[in-house]
User: What shape does this take?
Amino acid sequence: MSAVALQKGLIERLPKVEGTYTEHYNMARHMWFKVGGPAEIAFEPADLADLRYFLAERPRDVPVTVIGVGSNALIRDGGIPGVVIRLGRAFDEIAIGEDSIAAGAGALAISVARAAQRVGLAGLEFLSGIPGGIGGALRMNAGAYEREMKDVVLRARAVDPAGVLNVLQTSALGFTYRHCAVPEDWIFVGADLRTEPGDADAIAARMTEIGTARSETQPIRTQTGGSTFKNPTGAKAWELIDQAGCRGLRLGGAQVSDQHCNFLINTGNATAADLEGLGELVRDRVRESSGVELEWEIRRIGEPAPGGAS
Assistant: This one.
C-alpha cells in the first residue's frame, strides 16, 4: 500500500483553477525510470496566470513539488504528499528571435536545439545531448559537451511561492556546477537563450556528432534517469565507480549500466528502493575505494513505502 493516502477533503481546499487536478496520479508512467508511488494530487496549470493564481491562493500547509518531464529524478515508492505541479503543453512554447530563443520550462532541450538549427542559429547544439526540459536544465545548470546553461542563459522567468513572476538576469541565477542559487520553491517557467548566426548544415552535423556520441557511450534506450552522480572536483564519477568494481552491479531490479557506470537502469522490475539502494551501495564502495564522497545528481523525491528503504 502506498505511504501517500489522500487527505480527506484536500482537493476541496485547493483554489478553483482553469487547469486540472488529478487525485492519486500515477507518477511512474511519467518518469523515465518508470518507478515510484503516486502523487497525492497532480495539478497541470492551464497557463501561467493559472499557475500564479494557484500559488497565491493555495493553503500554506499543503506541500508543493514541481516535476518536469520526468528525467533526472527518482520518485520514491511511497509517492509524493500534497500537490505535484506538472507544467504541460502550456509551458512548452519555443519562440525564435534574431539572436535568441525564448523557451518555456516544459520545452524539451532537444526540441529547442532543433528549433535553433532549423533557422540557422548556433550555440545551443549541446542541448541536444541533455535529457529533459528547459525548466530542469535551469534548476541544475545542466551541461553537456563542454557547455552549460550558464553559457547561454540571458534571463530566466520564475514564479515565487506567492505567485509573483520574477525576471532574473544571469547574474541573479547563481549558476555553479550542476547548481542554481534560485530558491528551490521558485518555479522556473521559461528563459531567453543566447544564440548566434550559424550554418544550418554545420549545426545539424554537430548535433549528429553529439547524438552518435551519446548512443555509443550512454544507455539512452533503457529506463534510466541520466547521470546519477555529480563529477567530484578533479575526477569523473564514472571512473571512480568503475575503479570501485561497480560496473554491472545489481540490486533487485536495478543495475549499474555496463555501458556507462554513472547511469543506473531499471532492468524491468526495479522499485525506487532498488535504485536508491543501489546508488547508496555504489557511494559506499567508492568511498571505501577512493575516499571520495559521491554526491547525487538525480533528485530523489517523495516518501518511502511503508517498511521500505525508499
Observations:
- The mean pLDDT is 95.
- DSSP finds eight helices and 19 strands in the chain.
